[in-house]
Design a protein that fits this description.
single chain; alpha/beta; Fumarate Reductase Iron-sulfur Protein, Chain B, domain 2; FAD/NAD(P)-binding domain; 3 domains; five-stranded parallel sheet; 16 strands; 16% strand
C-alpha cells in the first residue's frame, strides 16, 4: 500500500520517466531541477501505527530513475564531501539513471558495506543532502536529490534479486584481530580487516549482533532481517562470532592481547549508558530510559506477547522526554505497543529539535502529540509507587547556548499537572564505562569517551577504538566512518 502525505501531489513517475528516458543525459541543469522530487511511498498512518512493519515502502524502479535524473553530476561533488565515508554519490546515481542498478550497488560498496542500513537511518538531510547543489539552488534541503532513498533502493534491489556478492578475502596472513562490539563501527572493522586476510573474531555482549541497529532502532525503521543479512555476509567471509561475551567481565581486554595472541583489538562498545534528569520520582515504577524501553521492545521482542523474552509495562498514557531520533522511536513504539495517548515533551521549540524532520512528521501522522517549551519538574507516584502524574514547567527561549540552540528559560509560576502512567526518558546516553573501568591503560575524557589519535589508536598498544565509545551518541554513518579509519590503521600496522 502506497501512502503520500496529503500536502504532496506527485506526478506519475512512469509518465515522467517516459518523457525524459531517451534524452536524460542531455538534460540541462535547469531542466533537471524542474523534475519533481519523488516522495517516498509509505504505509498509511492508520495502518502502520498498529504494526511493526517498515513504514517506508521504497521506490519503484521508475521513481528511482526519475529521482536520479535530478542529479547535476557536479564537478566539485559537494555531496561526497558531506558523506562521512566518502561514497561516490554522483557515480552511483549516474548508474541508477542509466538503469544499471547492480553497477550502482557496486559503486557504493567500494566504500560502504551497509547501504541497506545507511539508506534507511542516516540523517542525509544534515550530511550529503545538506550540501547538494540542487537543494541549495532550490533553497530547500527537502528538494535536494534524495540520495538516501536512492541508496536504499539499489541495496534492496540487490537483496531482492539475489545478487548480493561476498567481498573477496585475501590469503590468510596468520594475524588475529579482536572486534569488541558488533555495532556499525565494529561490523565495518570486521569486514575491512577480514578482507585483508586477517582472522577476525567479534565479541558481542548480547545474544544477538547489531548493536544499536538491533536494540535501539525499531523494525518499523530498520527491519532486523536487513541487519541479519549484513551479519550473514561477514560469516560467509570467515568472520568468527562469539556472543554473550562481555569483554571486561568474561575476560579482560589486556588478556586478549597479552595471553590470547590477538595482534590487535578494536573497541566499539558504544554509548549505552542512559542519562536521567535527576528529578524527584525517577525511581517510580513506570519510568524507563529510552535505552531500556527500546531494548525490551526490539531486541527482546516485547511487542510479540506470545513469544516475548521479557515482559513489557502496560501503558495507557505515555510521555517521552526529549527531542531526538531516539525520542521519536520511543514514542512511536509506545503507540504500537498499545498506548492510548503518547506525548513528546520538549523544552525547546520544534525548530530546535535534533530529530530528523521525516521522523517528526511520521510521529505526528501517527497521532503523537508534541508539547513544546515544556519540561517535567517532578514525577508523582501513587500509593503503590507507580507513576500517576507529572508536574511540568513552561519555558520560553533565551539566548543561544554552547550547542548553538536558543537556551530554554523557565517561566516563573507556570507549573501544571499532567496525568499519565508512563515516562520514557530520552535525553541521551553516556559511553559504556566497562572497558575503561577494567582497562586503566586506556585513557578517556571526562565523559568517559575513549581518547584516540588521528588513526583511531587508543593510549593502549595495539588497541583502536571508534563509534559512539569515542564520539558519544552519534549516527550510524559517523560510526562507520570511524570504523573505516580504524580498520585502515589496523591493516597498516599488521603489514597489509
Amino acid at each position: 500500500m502506497s501512502y503520500t502525505a496529503p500536502e504532496v501531489i506527485q506526478e506519475n513517475a512512469v509518465d515522467l520517466l517516459h518523457k525524459y528516458i531517451h534524452n536524460h543525459e542531455s538534460l540541462k541543469a535547469r531542466e533537471r531541477m524542474q523534475i519533481p522530487v519523488q516522495e517516498m511511498p509509505n504505509q498509511h498512518p492508520d495502518i502502520r501505527r498498529n504494526n511493526l512493519e517498515e513504514v517506508a515502502i521504497g521506490y519503484t524502479p521508475e521513481e528511482a530513475q526519475l529521482e536520479a535524473f535530478r542529479c547535476l553530476d557536479c564537478k566539485k561533488q559537494p555531496c561526497v564531501d558531506g558523506c562521512p565515508v566518502q561514497i561516490d554519490i554522483p557515480g552511483f546515481i549516474k548508474e541508477i539513471a542509466n538503469g544499471d542498478f547492480q553497477g550502482a550497488v557496486d559503486t557504493i560498496k567500494k566504500t560502504s558495506l551497509l547501504p541497506s542500513i545507511c539508506g534507511r537511518v542516516c540523517p542525509q538531510e544534515s550530511q550529503c543532502q545538506a550540501t547538494c547543489t540542487v537543494g541549495i539552488g532550490l533553497k530547500d534541503v527537502n528538494k535536494a536529490v534524495a540520495i538516501g532513498r536512492l541508496e536504499r533502493f539499489v541495496a534492496d534491489w540487490e537483496r531482492n534479486n539475489g545478487a548480493s556478492k561476498i567481498p573477496t578475502v585475501k590469503s590468510e596472513t596468520g594475524k588475529k584481530v579482536a572486534v569488541i562490539g558488533s555495532g556499525p563501527a565494529g561490523l565495518v572493522v570486521a569486514a575491512d580487516v577480514r578482507r585483508e586476510g586477517h582472522q577476525v573474531i567479534i565479541f558481542e555482549a548480547f545474544h544477538k549482533l547489531g548493536g544499536v541497529m538491533r536494540y535501539g532502532i525499531p523494525e518499523f525503521r530498520l527491519p532486523n532481517e536487513i541487519v541479519d543479512q549484513e551479519i550473514e555476509t561477514l560469516k560467509k567471509m570467515g568472520v568468527e562470532i562469539i556472543t554473550n561475551y562481555v569483554v571486561g567481565r568474561t575476560r579482560k581486554l589486556t588478556d586478549l592481547i597479552e595471553k590470547d595472541g590477538f595482534d590487535a583489538a578494536f573497541v566499539g562498545t558504544g554509548a549505552g549508558l542512559p542519562l536521567f534528569m535527576g528529578i524527584e520520582g525517577e525511581d517510580l515504577v513506570g519510568v524507563f530510559s529510552a535505552n531500556e524501553y527500546l531494548t525490551r521492545a526490539n531486541l527482546m521482542r516485547a511487542f510479540d506477547k506470545a513469544k516475548a523474552e521479557t515482559p513489557m509495562y502496560h501503558s495507557k498514557t505515555v510521555a517521552v522526554l526529549g527531542g531526538g531520533n531516539v525520542a521519536m522511536d520511543s514514542a512511536r513504539m509506545a503507540m504500537r505497543l498499545g498506548a492510548e495517548k503518547v506525548y513528546v515533551i520538549y523544552r525547546r521549540t520544534e525548530a530546535e529539535m535534533p530529530a530528523r524532520k521525516e521522523e517528526v512528521l511520521h510521529a505526528k501522522e501517527e497521532g503523537i502529540e508534541f508539547l513544546f517549551l515544556q519540561n517535567v519538574k517532578r514525577i508523582i507516584g501513587d500509593e503503590k509507587s507507580r507513576v500517576k502524574a507529572v508536574e511540568c514547567l513552561k519555558y520560553e527561549l533565551g539566548e543561544p547556548d554552547s550547542s548553538g540552540r536558543r537556551r530554554p528559560v523557565e517561566i516563573k509560576d507556570s507549573e501544571f499537572i499532567m496525568e499519565l502512567d508512563t515516562i520514557i526518558v530520552s535525553i541521551g546516553n553516556g559511553s559504556n564505562p566497562l572497558i575503561h573501568q577494567t582497562t586503566p591503560q586506556i585513557e578517556t575524557n571526562k565523559w568517559g569517551n575513549v581518547i584516540v589519535d588521528e588513526k583511531q589508536k587508543s593510549s593502549m598498544d595495539k588497541v583502536f577504538a571508534g563509534g559512539d565509545i569515542v564520539l558519544g551518541a552519534a549516527t550510524v554513518i559517523l560510526a562507520m566512518g570511524e570504523g573505516r579509519k580504524a580498520a585502515a590503521s589496523i591493516n597498516e600496522m599488521l603489514g597489509s
